[in-house]
């Protein structure tokens, strides 16, 4: 039992060490990558200050193009919404014009009917 407990303790310790080593390895890798990036950036800036400015300008141009694309997309969306609203207004206008035409026709029909009734009344009065 004691030997088995010692083996389990060793195995657990080995797992913990392996885990700790993995964490340390990852941390060291991150630090190394960060240091290398900083050194590379420093060397690039020393070698060509103008090139860095050029890269900044290219970055600004890329951002400008991205903004233009977003604006064009929004412009297209707004145009589409405008077209939809315009179509809805036209549809409503046509419906109201049709209603108005029906009302005019009904009014004319009622006027004719009124004239007929007045004519009959006039004939009855004679």
Write a structural description.
By secondary structure, the chain is mostly helical. The protein is built from 2 helices and no strands. It is elongated. The N and C termini lie far apart (135 Å).
Secondary structure layout plus pairing:
Elements: H1 2-47, H2 49-125
Mean pLDDT: 87
**What proportion of the residues is helical, as a percent range?**
over 70%
Q: What is the general shape?
A: elongated
Distance between the termini: 135 Å
The portion of residues forming beta strands comes to under 5%
Contiguous runs where pLDDT drops below 50 for at least 5 residues: none
Number of helices: 2
Gyration radius, in Å: 43 Å
What is the helix/strand order? HH
Total number of beta strands:
0
**Helix/strand structural class:** mainly alpha
- Biggest sheet layout: none
What is the compact description of this entry?
By secondary structure, the chain is mainly α. 98% of the residues lie in helices and 0% in strands.
Q: What keywords describe this structure?
A:
126 residues, mainly alpha
